[in-house]
Amino acid sequence: MPYLSVIIPAYNEEKRIATTLDAIYRYLTTQPFTWEMLIVLDGPQDNTLGQVQAFAQGKQNIRWIDRKQNRGKGYSVREGMLQAHGDIRLFTDADNSTDISHFNQMRPLFEQGKDVVIASRDHKDVPGARQAVPQPPLKRLLGNLGNLIIQTLVVPGIWDTRCGFKAFTAPAAKQVFAAARIDGWSIDDEALALTRRFGYRIGIIAADWIDAAGTHVTRLDYIKSIGEAVKIRWNLLTGVYKRSRPETPLATPKM
Predict the structure, then answer these.
(1) Backbone φ/ψ region at 238: left (φ over 0), alpha (ψ -120 to 50), beta
(2) Euclidean distance between CA atoms 84 and 90, whole angstroms
């Protein structure tokens, strides 16, 4: 079994997925631990699959799930985290805004006993966190307002719940993502809420984050996130997460 699984959810990413995969692969091949890469294709309508297949040719430890239906980031992250084999399972965005080398900061926290380690772009979470190339002002404003709502309803005390670079031990990943239900962008918030609900210990590292062009997040998604935060809160209050969730149909990864 590998020490680290890197899960990359991908929608229409043909223009940048190869660059991201190359950066992750080059990092992993220099590490002393065993690893795997698992790309979860979220029903892309472009040639993302072709780019993944071309990159993986002749390489070891690269798998992918070729799901034809678009279900959302949350569904894809859940699918990848539950299909991964690693002792540590890290999901990261396909735009590589948080470079894979940030895992160097995470590993000592796992060795100290943390169950979940997340990256934050907000210095209020951890000194040194920053957006090296920041988002446009409107996106930052919407994000900040959304975070205040998320803190109030779902994850108090964490200023950046949405940085797409989070790692879980295998036991934490299995319990959290087996219970998770959000298919959209709020999977980050839900996963952290469940991490706390189940009593896992969270560590935070400082992200040196770069805003990448071509995001799939729209202004409407920020509004949807408020509704999803309310839904997560309701689920927490009413015991929904204690009840069995309909099984997510998990595809068989390909190599």
Answers:
(1) alpha
(2) 10
Instruction: Give the integer Cα–Cα distance in Å for 178 and 144.
Output: 29
Alpha helices of the chain — where are they, by DSSP H? Answer: 17-28, 48-56, 73-83, 103-111, 137-153, 170-179, 187-197, 219-238
**Running DSSP on this structure, what letter comes out for residue 14?**
T
| pLDDT tens readout for residues 225-253 | 888 999 999 999 999 998 656 555 566 68
Question: In order of start, what are the domains of the chain with their CATH numbers?
Answer: 4-242 (3.90.550.10)
Q: Which of 182, 162, 166, 183 is nearest to 233 (CA)?
A: 182
The residue type found at 73 is K
Q: Do residues 201 and 167 lie in contact, with contact meaning Cβ atoms separated by under 8 Å?
A: no
Q: pTM for this structure? A: 0.89
Q: How many CB atoms lie within 10 A of CB 80?
A: 26
